[in-house]
Amino acid sequence: MNTMTLWHISGWGFAALAFAALLVGFSKTAVSGANTVSLAIFAAVLPARASTGVLLPVLIAGDVLAVLTYRRHAHWPTLWRLFPAVAAGVVAGTLFLVWADDGIVRTSIGAILLLMAGVTVWRRRTAETPEEPDAVVTRAGRMKARSYGVLGGFTTMVANAGGPVMSLYLLSAGFRKLGFLGTSAFFFLIVNISKVPFSAGLGLIDGRSLLLDAALAVFVVPGALFGKWAVNRINQRLFEQLVIAATVVGGLQLLLR
User: Fold this and answer.
1) Mind giving me the DSSP string for 206-251?
2) Are residues 72 and 230 in contact, defined by beta-carbon separation less than 8 angstroms?
């Protein structure tokens, strides 16, 4: 029995999942947040809850490629300040998954993403000067890091949708393109690996899901290579606009499905 038969996936369905995996690779090395489209595709082709378990190892494959590409550009002070809040968010997300149905999950995360995209646009238009990454040492910066960290941990655990939340945080903290990609690469590699025991405990990752992951992981590589090529041809302003646009699209997809 092959993987497609095991999951009752049509040829078109597998092609859609392969495209989503390719998009994961692109988002990890170019426009972080674009993989919300992948999230929607996985949830459309597979059962909604099961799709989060299948998508997680695909995301980890993309994270590894992103770390190999941008490892010298990570801002570790920001990461260390985020991780405690993210851990709290992951625990809250796990508890939420125990009782919440798919409709509540989608609506909650979609609303959060759209709200935060609006706040980020407003802050960037009203700020007189861009903040620097080390702004997290201020009291306001620490509060912002904790807030985004909890929301990022919650959304990434519930629906692998933490990318847009952390993208908005890094933009609001004044990260430039390479620092943004390097910091988010390490952040999501560590966070996604830490989610594996929780997802396995909830029955979202098992032998059947890993077989499908093995078939899809190969499509992450060309997406990551294309992203690495494209990011050098995207200026900073366009980069930021694409990140915010991807966040809005992902939020709307979750709300309207």
Assistant:
1) -HHHHHHHHHHGGGHHHHHHHHHHHHTTS-HHHHHHHHHHHHHHHH
2) no
Kindly state the tokens that stand for 13.
């369905």
Closest among 158, 183, 177, 150 to 243, alpha carbons compared: 177
How far is CA 134 from each of CA 139, 140, 142, 179, 208, rounded to the nearest angstrom? 12, 12, 10, 12, 44
CA distance 39 to 13: 14
CA diameter of the chain: 61
Tens-place pLDDT, residues 109-131: 677 767 767 766 776 666 544 55
Residue 105 identity: V
CB 183 within 8 A of CB 74: yes
Distance CA(9)–CA(19), nearest Å, equals: 14
**155 and 110 Cβ atoms separated by less than 8 Å:** no
Residue 171, C-beta contacts closer than 8 angstroms, at least 6 positions apart: 120, 124, 180, 240, 243, 244
Interhelix angle 139-159/102-126, nearest 10 degrees: 150
Pull the structure tokens for residue 82. 């985020």
pLDDT single digits (tens) 46-102? 877 788 889 999 999 999 999 999 999 998 988 888 889 999 998 998 888 888 777
Sequence-distant (≥ 6) Cβ neighbours of residue 175 within 8 angstroms: 75, 133, 183
Residue with tokens 């952040």: 187
Q: Calculate Rg over the CA atoms of the chain.
A: 17
Q: Quick check: 24 and 62 in contact, CB under 8 A?
A: yes
- HSE on the CB side for 69, CA within 13 Å? 28
Is 255:57 a contact under the CB 8 Å cutoff?
no
pTM: 0.79
